[in-house]
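step=encode ok
step=design start
structure_in=
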């Protein structure tokens, strides 16, 4: 017999996607900084996503190896000095890079590679 719970599966997919996005942003850092813990932010565009992320904050914090994780809502300003990854239409993650990388130079470099 197979048991599935679509709500739980959706929540875990969302958490896993957030963690993977944060880990990908970490790869922008110099190799010597990869094992350091850095702050991150999660911007939730719906109350339902905010509730899911808040209830799994510890898992995201632990699996993404963060020093802190702050959940932001739609009305909050996007954090500065961060790299951004859009997870889906309801969720974006930000990884604090200020002081580690020149974020604007990285964005320009990324744009050049996309052409």
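sequence_out=
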């Amino acid at each position: 017999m197979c048991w599935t719970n679509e709500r739980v599966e959706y929540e875990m997919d969302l958490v896993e996607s957030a963690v993977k996005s944060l880990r990908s942003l970490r790869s922008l850092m110099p190799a010597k900084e990869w094992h350091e813990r850095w702050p991150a932010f999660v911007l939730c565009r719906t109350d339902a996503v905010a509730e899911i992320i808040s209830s799994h904050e510890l898992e995201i914090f632990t699996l993404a190896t963060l020093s802190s994780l702050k959940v932001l809502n739609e009305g909050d300003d996007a954090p500065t000095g961060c790299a951004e990854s859009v997870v889906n239409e309801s969720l974006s993650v930000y990884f604090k890079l200020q002081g580690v990388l020149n974020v604007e130079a990285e964005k320009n470099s990324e744009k050049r590679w996309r052409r």
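step=design ok
step=annotate ok -> The first strand starts at residue 38 and ends at 44.
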